[in-house]
Amino acid sequence: MDIPMVSEILNLKISLGQYALIDYLGRTALQLAVLGEHYDCIQLLLEKSRMDVIEEGLLHAINTENVKICDMFLAHPVYSNPRSRLQLDFQHGFYEQEDNSSSFAPDITPVVLAAQCNNFDIVHMLIQKGFTIPTPHNYFCFCTECHNHKNFDRVVHSKSRLNAYRGLASTAYLSLSCDDPIHAAFELSRSLSKLAEREKEHKNEYRGLSEKCKNFAVDLLDQCRTHEEVMAALHGGTDTRDLMRIKMAIRYEQKKVRVRLPLGLDNLLLSNLHKTIMFFF
Questions:
Q1: CA 70, CA 64: separation in Å to the nearest integer?
Q2: With left for phi above 0 and alpha for psi between -120 and 50, is residue 236 left, alpha or beta?
Q3: Looking at residue 20, what DSSP letter applies?
């Protein structure tokens, strides 16, 4: 990319939102620089771009899973200024559906997209910047916000909830955003299973996400290799030997959960474990 030419155009103070700097597919100069991995040009364009153009560019950077470019975007002052962040949140507003010219649905925020891509590095960067995925309200919630959303467009409201849960069920997001990922996976799995029965239009998707959370918890526990790791997993990281994880798995009906026991596990613990597991059958 011709950096001097780009710099000359920017010095003329031409708005990046104008037609002249959008190609026939509606892509801005910043988007094209991201897709072409032109780092110098990205840095130059970031200094002159509007907030909405920057946010769209970040989404494309996340979608391509380019960690270096994402880091360049997140270093921009717009992601450190609370007022600017609030304006960006409005950009992802529910009522922006009709006027939305983005390649992504309005409810797709950077952290939701990164979580759906399951990119640990990018999710970590976004969490460090304070990005979170709010849990959708209860399906039967009658608050003003939910009531208005359903009246405005029930289908869009339903898809927006599903997008959020896709992000929340991400392995990367569960691992990096929760102090107790296993407990969070158990809770989310049960919630998603209930939603599968209530939101019939997305029944299969919610069932799949619930299964994904179950597998996450199992896979995480299966990573235990030493006596100490097994003990920590069984007791939830506490000093109290109460087999918290197994009891929790029973309470949340997580029958897939299993723990590989080392040969050196004491007989008392093995006996307690046997009694607890009998509840599964």
A1: 10
A2: left
A3: G
Whether the CB-CB separation of 125 and 70 falls below 8 Å is answered with yes
Token couple for 44: 């130059």
> Distances from the Cα of 129 to the Cαs of 51, 91, 152, 217, in angstroms?
17, 18, 32, 26
Rounded Cα distance, 180 and 159, in Å: 28
For residue 28, the SS3 value is: strand
CA distance 32 to 15: 16
pLDDT tens figures, 89-131: 666 665 555 455 778 888 899 999 999 999 999 999 999 999 9
pLDDT digits (tens, 9 = 90+) for 21-72: 677 888 888 999 999 999 998 998 898 888 888 999 999 999 999 999 999 9
Q: Token pair for residue 148? A: 């208005």
Rounded CA-CA distance 188/165 in Å is 9
Q: Sketch out the chain's domains with CATH numbers.
A: 1-132 (1.25.40.20)
